[in-house]
Amino acid sequence: MDISVKTFEGKDAGKVTLSDEIFGLEPRADILARVVRWQLAKRQAGTHVAQGRSDVNRTKSKMYKQKGTGRARHHAASAPQFRGGGRAHGPVVRSHAHDLPKKVRALGLRLALSAKAKDGGLIVIDKANLAEAKTKAFKETLTKLGLASVLIVDGTEVETNLGLAARNVPFADVLPVQGINVYDILRRDTLVLTRAAVDALEERFK
Fold it and tell me: Which SUPFAM superfamilies does the protein's record reference (predicted)?
């Protein structure tokens, strides 16, 4: 698959051939959904917790005698049915993460890249760098490229000025190629890859 290469200023910079094994697959929504679910579950905090009856600081003595009152049999006031008692079957601190085979994760990334290429949401640029770390300059660059919601993936390291300028821009993310992931690709309308990122991805899936 051949695709035009642009500079960060929007000018033509030749062409590049993309591997069909990475950018030419037929997208599968089921695999993409599995990978996104795995990603979001893994990062979920799981710190929600409620006090059970053993955690509530109330008297543990029997509330009233067993017989003769005409009322139900009860023991401690920390039981869930009483006001101020513990919560029955409440949430506890836990991890929401679950396993997903490594081959499925790798396939999901290739399918996400292929989906962007098929929908016309993939742009390849020569280099991603700015002369100065100014948010205004970064916004002007996005306007020249016709981008609003974008994920920019650079090589092994993000250029310093670009990383600083993009921090305060909503709907724009900048990642090194090691951090590329399915969720961030799908949540933005356009994926911008540098030549270094393309080379690294093709080397990764060789």
Answer: Ribosomal protein L4
